[in-house]
Amino acid sequence: MNILIIGSGGREHAIAMALSKSPNNNRLFALPGNPGIREYCECIDIDVSNFREIKNFSKNNNIDLVIVGPEVPICEGISDYLKGDKIDVFAPSQEASKLESSKKFTKEIAFENNIPTGKAKWFNNQTEASVYLEKLEAPYVIKADGLAAGKGVAICENIKDANNSLIDIFDGKFGSGQSVLIEDFLYGEELSYFAITDGKEILPLIGAQDHKRLLDKDEGPNTGGMGAYCPPPMLSSELENKIMMQILEPTIYGLKKRGIEYKGILFAGLMVKENEPSLIEYNIRFGDPETQALLMLLKSDFTELLIETMNGNIKNYNLEWEKKRAITVVLANNGYPSQYNTNAEIHGIKEAEKDPNVKIFHAGTSISNGALTATGGRVLNVTSMADTLEEARRHAYSAIEKISYKGKIYRNDIAWRALSKIT
Fold first, then answer.
1. Which residues contact 9 (CB under 8 A, 6 or more apart)?
2. Which of these, 225, 71, 70, 76, lies nearest to 151 by C-alpha position?
3. pLDDT tens digit string along 273-301?
4. How far apart are CA 293 and CA 305, in angstroms?
5. How much is the pTM?
6. Given 51, 123, 387, 400, which is the most exposed site by the fewest CB atoms within 10 A?
7. Which residues contact residue 258 at a Cβ distance below 8 angstroms, ignoring those fewer than 6 apart?
8. pLDDT on residue 150
């Protein structure tokens, strides 16, 4: 098969790795890709927002399947656009992608279908939003309604910070015309849960726990994610059944009632308290950095899974996982998620990957004057798989010590929740 991956981060690198393991002898392309993805793919210099060029490339190269990694092109309608020219796309439609592009839409689906979630109100006016805040108690949850690269949520401990967050959103920090959702704070433990759906059936994949805050002990600003591990010890079969029956299945049913078919990955951000899940938000694509750990554990043929999903045949699909644990630690650039250096040379990746338990996924790297450089906020994803989470964590942090570049930062406590429960 000829397969095109759209995207340039660690998630797309992991997708390419998983596809490369297929016995189908896939020919893989990526646009724009990155230096690490070149290990598996021919990288094509086309911007992910240029749908016309993507369509022409797909038709000229007999692409059998397009896999879209990042949320922006999905939410801007790339799936509908390419399918209009009979090109198969693994990504939901633009209408279905409102589950991520509009937090208001997701809340409406949740409220209409009795899905457990926090109470919320929407505001297009800063003054009205500020007045409403005065009626609440801290902590305050302020969300930009639309896409914000994983950084549009502020959890504020005082009213001053909450009002400053309102100002940021209404002043266009996350794009012009954003409305605001003010939501009740949910207490508990966060969980990322992944499933795949062919429009009729939902096949559970695996759960993970992400680390959104920049610094150890879950301090500092929100980021796109500083690390993840899976599966988390908290995810019992009882909890998984509740997630499916109380959240995912009613969501697909609610979309169908509105005449919307959903095909692709369904990624639920959840809060779990006393083994009861509540929906925080949805993403309509593979998570980053959860996917890097998740796909390390996948034993089944990833290509086959995607094809069966596209063909509507996942009802009896036998999904197999390695009976191991995986962890990803993000190496970022000092200053992320704000200003950071973009030309530091990277050393030590080959040395780190001599450990057979370790895989380094490129997230924000480029080749400059023949040298591999750190050009993104999140630079590398150091991922390890082992029999136990403790062992996987040890391998990952040992590999990190072998990698160097100016401005390297990372969290030292990835998987602390799980390990504190184990010990």
1. 34, 69, 70, 288, 362, 363, 364, 376, 378
2. 225
3. 999 999 999 999 999 999 999 999 999 99
4. 18
5. 0.93
6. 387
7. none
8. 62
Percent of the chain residues past pLDDT 90, beyond the cut: 85
Distance (Å, rounded) from C-alpha 96 to C-alpha 126? 29
Tens-place pLDDT, residues 171-183: 888 777 788 999 9
CA distances from 111 to 52, 55, 145 (A): 38, 38, 16
* Nearest one of 107, 122, 106, 256 to 180, comparing CA atoms: 122
Residue 298: DSSP 8-state: B
Phi-psi region of 227 (alpha: psi -120 to 50; beta: other; left: phi over 0): left
**Single-letter residue type at 33:** G
pLDDT grade for 146, boundaries at 50, 70 and 90: confident
Query: 269 phi and psi, to 5 degrees?
Result: -90, 120
Q: Which residue has the tokens 């530091």?
A: 344
The H or E element spanning position 18 is helix 10-20
CA 423 centroid distance within chain: 29
Domains and CATH numbers, the chain: 2-91 (3.40.50.20), 125-178 (3.30.1490.20), 189-310 (3.30.470.20), 325-422 (3.90.600.10)
| Residues contacting 322, CB < 8 A, separation 6+ | 296, 297, 298, 299, 385
The tens digit of pLDDT for each residue in 124-140 reads 889 999 999 988 989 99
To 5 degrees, how large is the angle CA 280–CA 285–CA 291? 95
pLDDT digits (tens, 9 = 90+) for 320-336: 999 999 999 999 999 99
- In this prediction, residue 174 carries a pLDDT of 79
